[in-house]
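In this notebook, the sequence line spells out the residues, with the fold written below as integer tokens. This is how one looks.
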Amino acid sequence: MNKIFALLPLFFLSLTTQAQNFTFGSITYDDYEFDKKKLDSNANAIVLKEFGTASIQQDDATGSLELVFEHHVKIKIFNKEGFKEANIVIPTYKDESREETISEIKASTFNHIGNDFTETIMDKKAIFVENRSKYTRLTKFTLPNLKEGSVIEYSYKLKSPNLFNFRTWEFQSNIPKVISEYLVYIPGIYNYNVSLRGFQKLTDQKAEISRECLRLSGVPIDCSKINYTMKNIPAFIEEDNMTAPSNFKSAIYFELSDVQNLNGSKTSYTKTWKDIDFELSSYKTLGSQMKRKDVFKDLIPEITKGSSSDLDKAKSVYNYIKKQIKWNNYYGKYSEDNIKKALDSRSGNVADVNLSLIAALSAAGLDAEAVILSTRDNGTVNKLYPVMSDFNYLIAKVNIGDKSYLLDATEPLLPFGLLPLRCINDQGRVINLKKPSYWIDLIASQKSTTSYIMTGKMTVDGKIIGTLTTYTTGYAAYGKRKEILQHSSPDEYVEKLDERLTRIKILDHQISNLDSVENSLEEKYEVELTINDGTNNDQFYFSPFFIHTISKNPFNLNERTYPVDLGAASDERITINVLLPEKYLLLEKPKDMAIALPNAGGKYLLQTALDDNTISMNQILQFNNAIYQPEEYLFLKEFYSKIIQNQKTECLLKKTN
């Protein structure tokens, strides 16, 4: 990921900052007739103007400092696909004692009727609030009277007690923007580390001193008044196989470094990892829980009974925690209460589950550590200095001999040492109670593999009857096990599967190792496949690509500025052997292929043949890397295009005399 760090000191050139908010409702013919070809001819909607401002102010009622953020945007809707841009969702955050608030919401839709613009003002009753989680609240509204060609406009004010991160500003979104401006007022006593992330560059950045913008205890404080401008911003298009969009969208981020107190002292918020290590090791909700071997001391002999090695012990402890404590679907790097309570209630958040695992491993005499990380949907963490708010998850690490294993006991369907895909995100920080913390790569410990083997016979009436056996390991097996167990029984799963399959009819089935997650999952199906209607057995077409056909290219952008992150390397193999009822000639067939990605990144092999009255196909699709860089994107796109094009070709069989 490309990151541009623009660390701003608190002294500025004496420049005139021209940025100012635009008047609400000032719709012009230029807005209405805006030609999207100037920016993106495929756009369904475009932001014409966007302005935001953020400042730190003193609340009149409480006297406490708060961040005041105002957002104002005007959007041109081109077609019905663009109507979704009128569905506005504003997240706010809260905890036990503090919360963010939304006020002064204004929203209108403007349509050109006759020779004038008609404004439809949104009714305040259209605004509603959803409590998404314990810590998140969503304010939602939809603008009224939408038509193709409408211009919508809305604004609001947000007040937040969170001064640490100031207020992030996203220049880039899912639709293009003509201009986006952000004006911030940062009091001179506050020093923020400021970073511009993403691949788009600022069009302009201006700064000046704003005199006496804040007064604390009668002391006037000057502010740094900074204006960030970006113009002609392309849409950020999300594709599959990526981590959090926030890693790659062009945006300004702020993180508080230090505060100069009025008494002359300084409070530093940018701590060292040495500081963080000391704090975490003493936290009641983290370090103290890691030490609680007493919770499991009496249980360990029974848990590890029959274990002949440290690895066997670790697996026994891991399986015990998976069964005893159910994850409540909440993330967290801190225990909600304590691991004893989690064990007694048999439920807890991520940290409860994995801190219990760490304590139990330690009680078994094993070397266990904690790893804090940020999940894929949460973004990557700052490596320059510790920012604890970047981390939202905790897993275990156990060291056995010269090997170490990363463990997460929240997912019963994952084998020992394989993390959930949500955890495979750059690096995590290992927390050891006796040694300094350090970074560790978060990578999948297993390749995801799938193998299909089909053996059958073709009947004289144009059907194939045979056995299809599938073997899966790694994330492929995890996904399949999860899907099967979402049904009331394997029989119901197969029944639903049979309903979804259009060409294949399942006659009988057998699923093995469903609960044995350390082994490959095996599915065996007796199937019937109709090739032709039997009216012309002398000559007919037959497609060998009836198992996991690749019909859609997952990569459709002309350029992708962020990596393709598959999470793990993968290997898929398909073997088909069908005995024909009579002697046939193979007149046409898909072209045999052997294509590869650059730098041994992967390969696709295909071979079809007719030998001894048996038509066969062997296909291998391998991706040897978990991550492909943006410069490799077009190779992936072309790789898939060739495969898809070749899979459109069928075999032509003709009966011999």
